[in-house]
Every structure is written in structure tokens, then in C-alpha cells.
Amino acid sequence: MEDTKPKSTPIRFLSSLLMISLLISSSSAQNCQSTTFSGNRIYSTCTALPVLNSFLHWNYHQSNRTVDLAYRHTGVSSTNWVAWALNINGVGMAGAQALVAFQGTGGNMQAYTSSVIDTRISTLSPGNLSFNVPSISAEFVSSEIIIYATLHLPGDGTSFNQVWQIGPLSGNNPAAHNLAGANVASTGTVNFADGSVTGDGGAASTRQRNKNIHGVLNAISWGVLMPFGAIVARYLKVFKSADPAWFYIHVACQSSAYIIGVAGWGTGLKLGEESGLDNTTHRNIGITLFCLGTLQVFALMLRPNKDNKYRMYWNFYHWGVGYAVIILTIVNIFKGFELLNPAKGWKHAYIGIIISYGAIAVLLECYTWYFVIKRKRHTPPSGDKYPYAGNGQAV
Questions:
Q1: CA distance 270 to 300
Q2: Is the model's pTM score more than 0.90?
Q3: DSSP label at residue 52
Q4: How far is the CA of 286 from the CAs of 22, 212, 291, in angstroms?
């Protein structure tokens, strides 16, 4: 007799998955539609936002282009702040026009508007928005913070970029939120007229990944390889046994740094174009570094012979531009840390590398001068004009 149980197993499994999906969808819909609000507030449209346990309820009044809304953030505590915002001219938090709420240390709810001009500043300070908000209030009920507000929509459209967020409190002030996971995926669009909402978490994650790639490429190239190549050129050439190995190591380091750095520079230009932000100082230093680095590459092709009368001037140029690049690189990497705001460990690691390079340079400077002076005392004069360089020539 044939056993029919194995044939029914896949059907039962698929049926179970379908039932679970329906239960999840039904639970989400009930959590959105069945919510009751204080003051007999009723909202005709409701949507569950993709991440961070958040919901948006609203009524759109076409006659005067106003929106009455309630933003609910569930699963929060009295040590959290929450925010919901429209970004009229961009995406993400930079430039967002935010509604912020939290429970103060005295137990009273704080609700206000805040225009996020600079994401490097973690505190969401109260301030006017680019559009009118006639009323705003908030309440904390059963681990939920609910922000109530009325907005006068800007311009002529009804579809806008939106962003929502949660973070910790520091006393009575919002502190920096997490920069990973759902906290960088909480963006999308909302159309108040037709009720459509889209999530843009994937794009937000992509932007964050591109920022990380940009930072790593530039830190490794301009910030690590290039100073190492300069140390090799300055100190190894003193030793005759290291000639010409030091030159090839120097060229390999600087060439690799330039190639990787150009890739990092390109990702930075792309990020700036996509964000629409004007990080003037960081951008301008980056462009300057690219130009100086390119000049160094072409200057290498035009390097005079050692016995050429212009070689000394070329040496001064090469040395001056090279050290200017290193100094500007260090400054710009720290500017990048301010913009990217990564985990403190990254910044501390780079500070450790710079301190290590500085300590090594000081020790080698002392040793090479000792070595050169000692060699001069024990070697008859040879007419060498530059005893420090050993061969009379800089890089």
C-alpha cells in the first residue's frame, strides 16, 4: 500500500507559511488601523513604516494644503528621543525638517521643531522649519511616544522624502543615534494625497556603505601609504646598502597611494553629487590633494638627471609638494571623520598610526644624523655636497 504522507508534507508546509504571513500582515494592519488616540483624534490614512517600529497616521486637507498627523514610535523608554521629518531638498537627516519629542527629566513631554542643518551636531536644537507648523504636541503612553502635529505643506506637491529616527537622551538633550542597521535605513517617501509610502532603506544602506568605502580608501592611500613612502625615502637612502631599493619602495608606495587615492576621490565626488550637500572645506582639500598628487606623478616623468643644474630645484619642489600633501591629507581625514561620524575606534586607530609614524620619524631622524656624523668622522672628504643623502640627491 502506497504511503501518501510525504506528498502532503510540502502542501502543509506552504499552507503554514501562508497562514503565518497572513497573521503577520493582519497583526500589522490591526496595530495601524485599530489604534485609538487621545482627544478623540481620528485619522483616515495609516501606514506602518518599514523599520524602527514606527507608524504614521494622517488626514490630508486639500483645500488649504494642511496635514494633521500622528507619528507613533513603539517600544521606546523614557531615556529615548524620537523624531519624524520631511526632507524637502534631499534625503536622510541632513537638511531634514524634524518634529522631535521626548520625556524630560521632570516627566513632562517635550515636543518641538528642529531644522537639521549639520549632521555632525548630534543635539537637535529647537528652531523654525522651512514650512509652517501651527501646532505640535506629544505624549508617552505604554512604551510609545506619539507626536501630534499640523503641517502646512510647502510648494505645490504632496509627495516628499521622509526620515524617522530614535536615539538616546543625555539629560534633557537628544544625543547621537546609532549609525548602523535600521537607524541608517529609516528613510523613504510619503504621498499625503494618495496615501502611498515607500521605504528607501536599501538606498540609505548603499550610501552608508559608499561613505565607508570612500573613507577607507582615502585613509589607507593618502593617510597611511603616502607617509610611509615619505619615511622610506627620507631615512633609508642614508644607508648605501639600501640604494636603490629605497627608491623603488618609495615609488611603489606613492604610486599605490595615488591609484587607490584617485578611486577614493572619485567615490567622494559621487557622494557629494548624490547628497547635494556642500561640504566645502573637505571637498576643496580633496580636490587640492588630487591636483598636487597628479603634479607629483608628472614631475616624476620630468625629473632631471642627478648632474643636471636644475636637479636641486626639482628636489626642493618634490620635497615641498610631498610634505604639503601629507599635511593636508591628515587634516582632511579628520574632516572626514567629522562628516562620517564613525565608531570612535576608527578615529583612535588612525590617531595611533599617526603617533606611531611621528615616533618612528623622530627616532630615525636622531639615528640617521648620528650615523651621518659618525661616517663623516671616519671617512675622508669626498667632495660630496650632501653627506646626509649619501648620494648627493634628494628623492
A1: 29
A2: no
A3: T
A4: 52, 16, 9
